[in-house]
Amino acid sequence: MDENDWLQQPAHHLIPRGDAGYPDLLEQISGAPAQLFVNGDPGLLHMPALAIVGSRNPTRAGARNAFEFARHLASCGFCIVSGLAEGIDTAAHRGALDAGAATIAFLGHGIDRVYPASNRDLAHQIAQHGALVSEFPLGTPPGKANFPQRNRLISGVSIGTLVVEAARRSGSLITARHAGDQGREIFALPGSIHNPLARGCHQLIRQGAKLVETADDILAELAPLVAHIRQNTVKSTASATPADVLDDEYQLLKKHLGHDPAGIDELAENSGLTIEQVSSMLLILELEGEVESLSGGRYSLLG
User: Fold this and answer.
1) Which domains does the chain have, with CATH numbers?
2) What is residue 246's predicted lDDT score, i.e. its pLDDT?
3) How far lies 99's CA from each of 264, 294, 295, in Å?
4) What's this model's pTM, rounded to 2 decimal places?
């Protein structure tokens, strides 16, 4: 398909580097792509994101862990990022969607293709409720060399990367290495010493990755970082959006939240804020101990 024809389709976007829509975290990495093709909501690229990656052939327990971690962290306001591969990637995307939250899939081929074919339906769901993203030109096939290159974007757009089941030569360790080079947090789930798919995670832990047993371990670790991001946002946008305006937005959200549980869509509609703004603000408020995340993707004020 011709690029201009592709861009005429609903929810199709091309974001060049330097554009206001280009994610700030990707701007910071070495070898940031010159442009991003996006099928879905490009605003999600600016949400606090967590990458979840791992084996293409996980154990049943590994897939379940990826699903549950993704569902819980997505319900807390993180945008879950992965690579649409079979196994752990698939479980992570599905966990986020199950929470009624957004997820982003970075592709190792042109955005007009789906690979693997078994994830065609999942790719359509992500395009509708999240975003598919690729740096490769339309028509680019899923070449073997493309996926390690793609992995630097998965880690680069995220403030942290969680590895769930990975062999010692897993591509997930490439993503983790990129995360380390980019100054991002690295988390790993430990496993049985008899499970070959735990050895990559154990290797990461020996090298300094944070050992994770629950999703709350990740939330506790990232809380200061998310607060730091909020401070930088207030400072860097002072000329366009004064800090008192941002504070007013938080007060507006809390006014409509109250102590009665409410979902993100309801809060966005009542407050006039976007879903992306509400998701990001709820995450920050939860990490600061002002908001409680409840079942069904609902939130209420604490205290």
Assistant:
1) 3-217 (3.40.50.450), 237-301 (1.10.10.10)
2) 47
3) 11, 11, 9
4) 0.78
